[in-house]
Design brief:
Elements (H helix, E strand, L loop, with lengths): L2 H16 L10 H4 L11 E4 L4 H4 L3 H9 L7 E7 L2 E6 L1 H14 L14 E5 L14 H16 L3 E5 L7 H13 L2 H25 L2 H15 L2 H25 L9 H5 L2 H10 L3 E4 L2 E4 L9 E4 L7 H16 L3 E5 L5 H13 L5 H4 E4 L4 E3 L2 E2 L10 H19 L6 H18 L7 E3 L1 H4 L7 H17 L15 H23 L3 H20 L7 H24 L9
Parallel strand pairs: 4-5, 4-9, 9-10, 11-13
Antiparallel strand pairs: 1-3, 2-3, 6-7, 7-8, 11-12
Helix pairs in contact: 5-20, 7-8, 7-9, 8-10, 9-10, 12-13, 13-14, 16-17, 19-21, 19-22, 20-21, 20-22, 21-22
Length: about 575
């Protein structure tokens, strides 16, 4: 039951009745509807300002004339306030219809088929081989995971891509270091940390013996040429890195459909260079090859270095073309920090110049802000790096300590601590608009009383507790028991949850779902404290339990869409 569309339909009927000869009126009336800042002003407001020119009448007069034609059982009344027509639902009827709509398929409330038949590629996380996950990788990983879930929920076919950073001379240097000072057993046991030690040692030794640099480049050339030994070690390095990364992904509940990285695309760049040459787009620049983007107020896009080597920019062009031809996407999202904004503008412009007219409309850079930890920015050079697996482990430890204090008799405390601790980290990342910088603080993230992941999860657990304690009731629900302000506020938020999911998809903004879910949790808690849910009136109790169950289901969906688990006991 889409109340916005219902009100829009009613507004259309009113316009047709009041102004049958009107021309040039907006077709999408639903887009004009607004939610008043104060519920006392109505459930929806229809602004008449954009109708004034077509109807040659002042907005207040339009609103007044429209209000004279309202006769619907689901609308209690309308009020004219200035140039607005404010609609007030029939509260009992609204509660009945709203809960019936949700409980028909509660786990699917907010889903739709708007993406049916369409494909979206979502590139996120995109870790570097032989490097540890740190806090700076958190945003891309959880934003991408949430968007994948949101698009899935709305009927899209999603392809999740971890575009691995697995190409470059550093891998030749690592093989060289491994051959000189490493052994398989130590690397298998030490994982990425051991590979990092080897790479650091190579750079230290190369300062004393510059000839090592040539050996490193030679090993990378062997990778490029398909040398069996070089490729074997190279792929093994990738396997070890992904094995370590999977531990983090498993904790976060993140999965990918493709791990095709730069090394795969490196083999597809000859076509890119050839097409650019054939279309007269390549220019010489001090021996290098560029695409001139000065007419588009951008610096040149470097395609080939002076030694003929490709760059990640070249491989990004190849990747975009490969994904379009392989997955036939309708949208392709790149979840990458805002510092890469210029790169993606250049990438999409070059693709457009190559004749790929889908690039500018279908390829989107989904940017996000920087992450700091308790007031300090992440900086690899200064050594201030917070490793993600350590952060998640610490989050679980802190959550367990809080649970031991608040709920000492809780069963399965380690699992709940995992859900709550990890959820706190993810929620803190998705709480605000993705473009905003994030400063992560433990006392904020793990607060059970503020707008946090644990708060929303605890509200879900509270709903579960109420339903567990409820006696079996056979009486039909009396929806008149849900006409109070607190119940109606909760119902309004539940009714608008599908709008929030759809808008989050449209804007690629998971925080919209985070905020919508949090507001539902807050509204339920207010209702819980203001009203006795289990009372002596079976019919009223049945209605209140149904409202509790609806809130429970929608909160669970909201948590899932942003990547959080929903523990039933806390």
């Amino acid at each position: 039951m889409d109340m916005r569309q219902r009100i829009a339909g009613l507004a259309g009927e009113m316009l047709a009745a009041a102004f049958p000869e009107a021309q040039g009126l907006p077709e999408d009336l639903a887009a004009l509807l607004e939610v008043p800042p104060d519920p006392a002003m109505g459930d929806y407001a229809f602004p008449c300002f954009k109708l004034s020119k077509a109807l040659r009448m002042g907005p207040p007069m339009i609103a007044k004339k429209l209000s004279e034609s309202v006769q619907r059982p689901d609308i209690a009344r309308v009020e004219c306030v200035g140039g607005y027509l404010n609609f007030f639902f029939n509260r009992e009827n609204f509660a009945r219809e709203m809960l019936a709509a949700i409980m028909q398929a509660p786990e699917k409330w907010g889903s739709s088929g708007e993406g049916q038949g369409k494909t979206v590629c979502v590139e996120y996380s995109s870790i570097n081989i032989a490097k540890r996950f740190h806090l700076g990788h958190l945003s891309t990983t959880v934003i991408g995971n949430s968007l994948k879930r949101i698009y899935d929920f709305l009927g899209w076919h999603t392809v999740s891509i971890n575009y691995l950073g697995d190409w470059g001379t550093q891998f030749g240097k690592m093989i060289c270091a491994y051959k000189k000072w490493g052994d398989k057993e130590t690397v298998e046991k030490g994982g990425v940390d051991e590979m990092t030690k080897l790479y650091v040692r190579f750079n230290e030794e190369a300062k004393l013996d510059p000839a090592l640099e040539d050996e490193g480049r030679a090993w990378f050339k062997k990778i490029e040429d398909g040398d069996e030994e070089a490729l074997s070690i190279f792929h093994w390095f990738k396997d070890v890195t992904l094995r370590d990364a999977m531990k983090v992904y498993d904790v976060l509940g993140v999965q990918f459909d493709s791990y095709d990285g730069e090394s795969v695309m490196a083999g597809k760049t000859d076509r890119v260079v050839r097409e650019l040459e054939e279309k007269g787009l390549l220019k010489d620049s001090d021996g290098a090859k560029i695409v001139d983007l000065e007419p588009y107020d951008m610096p040149p896009y470097l395609i080939l270095k002076s030694d003929g080597a490709t760059l990640y920019a070249t491989r990004d062009i190849a990747a975009a073309i490969y994904r379009k031809e392989t997955y036939h996407f309708d949208q392709s999202l790149y979840i990458v920090a805002y510092q890469q904004d210029l790169h993606f503008k250049q990438l999409f412009q070059v693709l457009d110049l190559m004749g790929y007219d889908w690039a500018k409309d279908q390829c989107k850079h989904v940017a996000f802000g920087m992450v700091s930890y308790e007031g300090q920015a992440m900086a690899t050079r200064t050594g201030h790096v917070v490793l993600l697996d350590e952060l998640l482990s610490r989050a679980q430890e802190k959550a367990l300590a809080i649970i031991n204090e608040k709920s000492p008799n809780l069963d399965n405390k380690p699992e709940v601590a995992r859900q709550v601790g990890v959820g706190a980290v993810v929620y803190a990342t998705l709480q605000n608009n993705r473009i905003k910088d994030i400063d992560f603080w433990w006392d904020r993230a793990l607060n059970f009383d503020g707008e946090t992941g644990p708060y929303v999860q605890y509200t879900f657990a509270r709903c579960c507790s109420v339903l567990r304690k409820a006696p079996e009731i056979t009486a039909a629900p009396d929806y008149a028991a849900l006409t109070d302000d607190e119940a109606q506020a909760l119902l309004r938020l539940l009714s608008r949850f599908p709008e929030a999911v759809s808008e989050a998809c449209l804007r690629n903004e998971p925080s919209i779902v985070t905020r919508a879910t949090t507001e539902i949790a807050k509204a339920y808690n207010k209702y819980y404290y203001e009203h006795r849910i289990l009372d002596d009136d079976p019919a009223a109790t049945a209605a209140r339990l149904q409202l509790t169950d609806a809130a429970r289901q929608v909160i669970k969906t909201g948590l899932y869409l942003i990547g959080l688990d929903a523990p039933e006991r806390m």
